[in-house]
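thought: fold this chain, then report.
action: predict
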Amino acid sequence: MAVIKQLEPAALVRETRQRLELSQVKFAEKLGVSFQSINRWENGRTKPMPIALKQIEYLLHQMGETGKDLLVKYFCE
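observation:
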């Protein structure tokens, strides 16, 4: 289960998307959510559901060394 640290989920979403070099639209497609969801998450209007956080965590694991610092920063091991 993805357990996010007490940091801002908006920053996690933004930093992960930017690290993957994806637009909000492309990142939304990758996660299977709407562009509006990504936009609301990044602007702090809503927070990602636990399943979305798990998908983001999985993407960071897939990135290997490139995503390792974000895993340490945002997720409890």
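thought: worth noting. The two ends are 10 Å apart (CA to CA).
final: tokens above.
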